[in-house]
Amino acid sequence: MGFLLRSLNVTVALTSEVCHKTLPREPTGEIGNIKGWPKLMWYCVDSFAVKPPKDWHPPADIPDHAPAYIEVRK
């Protein structure tokens, strides 16, 4: 996974609170690096876990080559 994220130049990760709690921490409490992964900014999205309407489409101004990694908890 780290190789894929690094090769796509991913810098932001959206994740669940459960996953966020298990991430390695620095002594300061900040999220540490995961070996082989790029430096990421982590965001919990549990509060955004609302099902979008059926007619929802991504915004048109996002370029097709914009990388992203999203973890979905069911």
Short summary:
This protein has 74 residues and is of the alpha/beta class. The protein has helices spanning 2-7, 17-22, and strands at 12-15, 41-44, 69-70.
What does this structure look like?
With about 70 residues, this protein is an alpha/beta fold. It has two helices and three strands. It has helices at about 1-5, 15-20, and strands at about 10-15, 40-45, 70. A three-stranded parallel beta sheet has the order 2-1-3. The two termini are about 20 Å apart. The mean pLDDT is about 80.
Looking across the biggest beta sheet, what order are the strands in?
Answer: 2-1-3
Structural class: alpha/beta
State the major sheet. 3 strands, parallel
The DSSP helix count reads: 2
**How big is the Rg?**
14 Å
Record field, number of beta strands? 3
Share in helix: 10-25%
Q: Identify the overall geometry.
A: flat
| Overall pLDDT score | 79
Distance between the termini: 20 Å
In sequence order, what are the helices and strands, one letter per element? HEHEE
Write the layout of secondary structure elements.
Elements: H1 2-7, E1 12-15, H2 17-22, E2 41-44, E3 69-70
Parallel strand pairs: 1-2, 1-3
Name some characteristics of this structure:
74 residues, alpha/beta, flat
